[in-house]
Write a structure and sequence with these properties.
By secondary structure, the chain is an alpha+beta fold. Helices cover 25% and strands 21% of the residues. The strands form 3 sheets. An 8-stranded mixed sheet has the order 1-2-10-7-12-5-4-3. β8 and β9 form a beta hairpin.
């Protein structure tokens, strides 16, 4: 693992034009950075982490009662995902983590209801859990909508270029728990094996334990330790395709060698399932054929998650 630091983008008081320049540098150089000053109150962050710790402290039976449904919502048990679609490494061991997955809520009277990933969320029988989780998700969604403008400007596009693709965004809030890994664990044992994210952008809140690493262009790994008041942000596959590779969807991994439990709360803000992703003209010749985001996403979920290989509710 090499020394170095990720760039920090401070939103407090910055113009969209200034943010655009910083985003372009960070996303073109390594595809990762820290965000700070995004206007999400620390109390909301503390609340979602406390909710996550309380959820993961429940007896296994209580968590299994809301096991992942066919809409990719609910509890994902430890060692139930193997990243078969990784372009970074041959992954043979399941991830040593468990999580609660919340997505965009789709009510039964919504025309989208029943399509892949368009359905109801599942909630544990845990008083005081739902409110702080939903509050954090709503704050992150509002910030991500604000982020679309400077990201478009960074690519030489009109400020509102991305907006039509996010009228009904596909969103995931994942409350992850990583148990401590043994110091003598095999080299290919991970809390999260090397991978790239599938969609548009990921904004990660992490606790103080550390363990996240980012792969540089030269193949070395760079630690992305927790910094107070920041989120770790990365480009995902669809955004990289939109930019014809100008912005990198960078591999990353987690090894929890802290000796204690690690918690993180990644928020994935992605385009609508029907969005057609094809290279924008401001980023040179097309590097990939057009792809419907929903098709790309489902192909990866179906391969990487054990629950999708068997009938589910």
């Amino acid at each position: 693992m090499s020394a170095g630091t990720l760039p920090i983008v401070d939103f407090a008081g910055a113009s969209d034009e200034a943010l655009a320049r910083q985003l372009d540098r960070a996303f073109a150089d390594i595809g990762f950075c820290y965000f700070t000053g995004i206007g999400v109150d620390q109390a909301l962050v503390d609340g979602v982490f406390e909710a996550s710790r309380r959820f993961h402290a429940l007896p296994r039976a209580a968590k299994d009662a809301i096991a992942m449904n066919r809409f990719h919502r609910g509890y994902m048990a430890p060692k139930s995902s193997i990243i078969q679609t990784s372009s970074v490494a041959k992954v043979t061991r399941p991830n040593d983590s468990e999580s609660f997955m919340l997505m965009h809520e789709v009510a039964p009277d919504d025309p989208r209801y029943g399509r892949p990933l368009d359905g109801p969320n599942l909630w544990p029988d845990l008083p005081g859990f739902r409110a702080p989780v939903e509050a954090y998700e709503q704050a992150m969604r509002a910030f991500c909508r604000r982020l679309l403008g400077p990201m478009a400007l960074a690519l030489g596009l009109p400020r509102d270029w991305f907006a039509p693709h996010f009228g009904q965004p596909t969103t995931f809030l994942r409350l992850l728990h990583y148990p401590p890994q043994a110091t003598d664990a095999p080299d290919d044992a991970f809390g999260s094996a090397p991978h790239t994210d599938y969609g548009f952008i990921t904004i990660l809140a992490q606790d103080r334990q550390g363990g996240l690493e980012v792969r540089r262009k030269d193949g070395t790994w760079l630690a992305a330790p927790p910094l107070d008041g920041t989120w770790v942000v990365n480009v995902a596959d669809m955004l990289s395709r939109w930019t014809n590779g100008r912005w990198q969807s960078t591999p990353h991994r987690v090894k929890n060698l802290s000796g204690g439990d690690r918690y993180s709360c990644p928020y994935f803000f992605d385009m609508a399932m029907d969005s057609l992703v094809e290279g924008v003209p401001t980023c040179g010749p097309a590097a990939h054929p057009p792809v419907r985001y929903g098709d790309y996403l489902m192909e990866r979920l179906d391969k990487n998650y054990a629950y999708r290989q068997q009938p589910v509710a």
